[in-house]
């Protein structure tokens, strides 16, 4: 009787073919349970019930941890997916007639209950891999047949039969074994053989459940004695002791139940006549002895043959259950005949359950009450609460704790829960309203409420914070309405619910109340008054919107929570100041040039304390690199003149602002017949050609210096390399010939040759570049006048407050006033919408307007700055903007250069 038993031979779980293994995610375990879980795992390892797994396994089952009232833990699996893949053995279960025949004429009976049930069946390594589960301490697998495996009842019955089935006077029914004898000597002899064989093969029995050498015993839900089979009064007690109807409604329910079974009751109309007369509207309610006698007679008829029948495990098993606001009712039915009835009142705690929890409790009550009949068999369970159908299909971990606890207790039963309208379930409906008031509640059911209430004990909050939540939940009218719906019932129509409570309607089956707190699944529902405070705590550390949403969704719930978090973080001034740069905007490329040296970009850079001038042709990609002694306008102009003397003047020279915006340079542009264009302020990507030229030039210079070689040799090599997608080199495109280098080359290849289809090739290359860039770019929403914004400061790399004055004439450009009152022009890339209201100083300064702008030329912008795409470049009305003056932080006035807007 002590220890854990072990049946001989290991069992192999067989799966259907072509089944895909499933790996359930390892569930998080509350920190408060970690130490106890570790001790429980060690205890099960020592008893050879589980073992740790290091090798990979294809299956991983979800683990469910149940905390008992004594603090001990029970580890259960939820193998729903595995059960769908298991091949059932369908071992023959003995019928009631077969067992009755074997027990006929016996006078002495002993009933033995197998201890720990399925855990006495060892499984092989392949099957153990199927029962692998994850914990915070690694993966483990069961070495014994775990509860919840759908094939376990048949396997257990077969193992029992193989071990004890050949013994005279012994009958088996799953985990119950009955030993009989016509004489005491015969009984003792048979019992001795059973015990000796159990000792030999290490099979254990439950000492507390033995019915030893009795003249009558309870077995398979019936009472067996030398007289034969008798009905167990516990299964008809719900009818016999049913309260007498106290009003017309209760009488109508009783008559509905009787009528439902009427085809088995002779002279039903004659017996029920006085009762039916009492239900008439013109007859006052008066309960007499005649009515009492009719009800008593009907109770006797209902609890005896031919209405009541004996249970037969080979017939289809149907159980109907129902829950009223005060009681539970259930009826076991086979071939439309009732087999057993059950009812009881709800405890004060159970009365506060949500209606879906009461209906699930009714199923648990029925299963526990009819356990001796239905254990190990397929059961068709009917309930008039339709949401239970989906609840029993869901993963256990995804439902509320109370429903989860009920489901765990039902894992040992093969249930198929189906919806059936209440008006068609007369018996269970009547029993749930005319329930037995003194029926005891099983002690094991107390674990349900302990398990649920333990949730509040594991909440990671102080007692003062918990009391604050309880107080504000109580003071929140919407949450109190929700709590009332949970404890009574929800309106059938969503439109009958107040507006503030409507968002809860679609999740009503996942809501529950514990100790005056409301939960959605495991998430605490936050009262309206505490929502902003909780968002502030979630946003501690100033993490981004998605991270804060993810954190909140794990622990809190209220309708619109994601939106509230998003708006809170968007209005956070700290986050706004240190936000990342805006994402790239889609390209707005320059128009395609038609010939070499039509548009040329120029820039200056410094490397290793040496300044360089670079020039880059948009059509041919020809690169010029010139070392300069200083960055003055005169020096730069002289170097550019030398380049122009070789290749001629371009139509347009795109440049940075300084020193190319000086008066001397403007004069140079007029004399040499080209137009100047300048990039947008603080937006170098608007002169993408120059940025590309600088990058190439720096690469050539760095590598040449590293090798100690001449950079001009590398520059010559670059000019002679064919361009991707064009297959001509910059030298061929610009000069219509290849340059001679150190590499041997045929004389014919040095001959002049015109490049063909260049315009199409350049267009194709530009389109490829644009498409590639736009994959990671997005267009920002336009901004309205007087909108609050933040402006990116390229010096401090932070965002500073500002306000939109108006939209600039050029695409994606805005006139902005910053917090100091300075009027600036900025690209949309450097602006962000702000939820905050900022105070902006007003300076008496010249505003930006089109009237004071000098018309120089109209050159479309490149990259993200926003071009004015135009195919006509002969007389473009491009304008250069002069910004109003600005001051430094100390107040010194800065004279702004005249700039060309791009």
UniProtKB/TrEMBL annotation:
Signal peptide positions (record): none
Domain annotation Integrase catalytic: ranges: 592-752
Enzyme nomenclature, EC number: 2.7.7.49
Span of domain Reverse transcriptase: 47-224
Any single GO BP term: DNA integration
Class of enzymatic activity (EC top level): transferase
UniProt GO cellular component terms: DNA polymerase complex
Lineage, highest ranks first: Eukaryota, Metazoa, Ecdysozoa, Arthropoda, Hexapoda
Designated name of the protein: RNA-directed DNA polymerase
GO molecular function: nucleic acid binding; RNA-directed DNA polymerase activity
């Amino acid at each position: 009787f002590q220890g854990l038993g072990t049946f001989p031979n290991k069992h192999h779980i067989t799966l259907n073919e072509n089944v895909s293994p499933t790996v359930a995610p390892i569930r998080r375990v509350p920190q408060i349970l970690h130490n106890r879980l570790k001790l429980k795992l060690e205890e099960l390892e020592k008893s050879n019930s589980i073992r740790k797994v290091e090798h990979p396994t294809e299956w991983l089952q979800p683990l469910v941890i149940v905390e008992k009232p004594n603090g001990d833990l029970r580890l259960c699996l939820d193998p729903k997916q595995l059960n769908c893949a298991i091949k059932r053995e369908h071992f023959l279960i003995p019928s009631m007639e077969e067992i009755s025949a074997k027990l006929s004429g016996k006078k002495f009976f002993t009933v033995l209950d197998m201890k720990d049930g399925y855990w006495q069946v060892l499984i092989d390594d392949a099957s153990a891999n199927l029962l692998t589960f994850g914990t915070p301490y690694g993966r483990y697998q069961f070495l014994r047949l775990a509860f919840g495996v759908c094939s376990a009842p048949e396997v257990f019955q077969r193992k029992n039969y193989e071990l004890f089935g050949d013994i005279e006077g012994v009958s088996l029914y799953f985990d119950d074994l009955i030993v009989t004898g016509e004489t005491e000597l015969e009984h003792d002899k048979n019992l001795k053989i059973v015990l000796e064989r159990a000792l030999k093969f290490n099979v254990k029995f439950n000492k507390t459940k033995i019915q030893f050498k009795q003249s009558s015993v309870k077995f398979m839900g019936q009472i067996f004695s030398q007289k034969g089979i008798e009905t167990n009064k516990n299964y008809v007690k719900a009818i016999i002791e049913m309260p007498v109807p106290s009003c017309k409604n209760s009488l109508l329910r009783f008559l509905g139940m009787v009528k439902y079974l009427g085809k088995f009751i002779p002279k039903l109309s004659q017996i029920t006549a006085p009762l039916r007369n009492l239900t008439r509207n013109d007859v006052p309610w008066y309960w007499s002895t005649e009515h009492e006698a009719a009800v008593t007679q009907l109770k006797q008829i209902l609890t005896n043959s031919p209405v009541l029948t004996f249970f037969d495990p080979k017939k289809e098993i149907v159980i109907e259950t129902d829950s009223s606001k005060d009681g539970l009712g259930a009826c076991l039915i086979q071939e439309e005949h009732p087999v057993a009835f059950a009812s009881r009142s709800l405890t004060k705690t159970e009365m506060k359950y949500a209606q879906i929890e009461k209906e699930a409790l009714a199923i648990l009550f029925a299963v526990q009450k009819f356990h001796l009949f239905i254990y190990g068999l397929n059961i068709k369970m009917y309930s008039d609460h339709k949401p239970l159908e989906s609840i029993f299909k869901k993963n256990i971990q995804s439902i509320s704790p109370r429903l989860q606890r009920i489901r765990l207790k039902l894992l040992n039963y093969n249930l198929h829960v189906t919806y059936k309208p209440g008006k068609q379930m007369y018996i269970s409906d009547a029993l749930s309203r005319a329930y037995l008031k003194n029926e005891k509640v099983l002690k094991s059911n107390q674990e349900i409420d302990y398990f649920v209430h333990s949730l509040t004990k594991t909440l990671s909050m102080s007692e003062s914070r918990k009391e604050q939540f309880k107080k504000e939940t109580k003071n929140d009218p919407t949450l109190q309405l929700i709590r009332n719906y949970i404890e009574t019932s929800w309106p059938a129509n969503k439109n009958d619910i107040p507006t503030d409570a409507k968002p809860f309607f679609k999740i009503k089956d996942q809501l529950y109340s514990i100790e005056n707190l409301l939960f959605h699944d495991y998430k605490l529902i936050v009262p309206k008054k505490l929502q902003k405070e909780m968002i502030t705590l979630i946003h501690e550390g100033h993490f981004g919107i998605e991270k804060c949403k993810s954190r909140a969704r794990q622990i809190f719930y209220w309708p619109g929570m994601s939106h509230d978090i998003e708006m809170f973080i968007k209005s956070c001034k700290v986050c706004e100041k240190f936000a990342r740069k805006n994402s790239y905007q889609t390209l707005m490329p320059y128009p395609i040039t038609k010939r070499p040296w039509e548009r040329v970009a120029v820039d200056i850079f410094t490397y290793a304390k040496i300044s360089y001038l670079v020039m880059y042709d948009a059509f041919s990609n020809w690169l010029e690199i010139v070392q300069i002694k200083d960055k003055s306008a005169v020096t730069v102009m002289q170097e550019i003149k030398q380049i122009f003397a070789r290749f001629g003047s371009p139509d347009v020279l795109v440049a940075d602002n300084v020193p190319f915006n000086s008066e001397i340079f403007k004069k140079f542009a007029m004399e040499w017949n080209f137009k100047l264009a300048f990039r947008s302020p603080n937006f170098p990507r608007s002169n993408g050609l120059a940025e590309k030229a600088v990058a190439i030039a720096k690469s050539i210079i760095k590598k040449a210096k590293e090798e100690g070689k001449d950079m001009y040799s590398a520059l010559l090599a670059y000019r002679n390399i064919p361009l991707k997608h064009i297959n001509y080199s910059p030298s061929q495109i610009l000069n219509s010939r290849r340059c001679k280098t150190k590499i041997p080359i045929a004389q014919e290849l040095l001959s002049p040759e015109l490049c063909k289809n260049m315009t199409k090739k350049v267009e194709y290359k530009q389109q490829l570049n644009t498409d590639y860039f736009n994959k990671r770019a997005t267009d920002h929403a336009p901004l309205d006048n007087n909108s609050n914004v933040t402006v990116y400061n390229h010096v401090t790399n932070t965002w500073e407050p500002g306000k939109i004055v108006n939209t600039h004439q050029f695409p994606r450009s805005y006139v902005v006033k910053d917090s100091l009152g300075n009027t600036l022009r900025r690209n949309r890339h450097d602006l962000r919408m702000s939820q905050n209201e900022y105070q902006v100083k007003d300076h008496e300064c010249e505003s930006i307007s089109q009237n004071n702008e000098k018309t120089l030329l109209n050159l479309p912008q490149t990259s993200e700055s926003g071009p004015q795409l135009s195919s006509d470049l002969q007389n473009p009305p491009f304008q250069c903007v002069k910004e109003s003056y600005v001051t430094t932080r100390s107040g010194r006035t800065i004279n702004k250069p005249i700039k060309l807007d791009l």
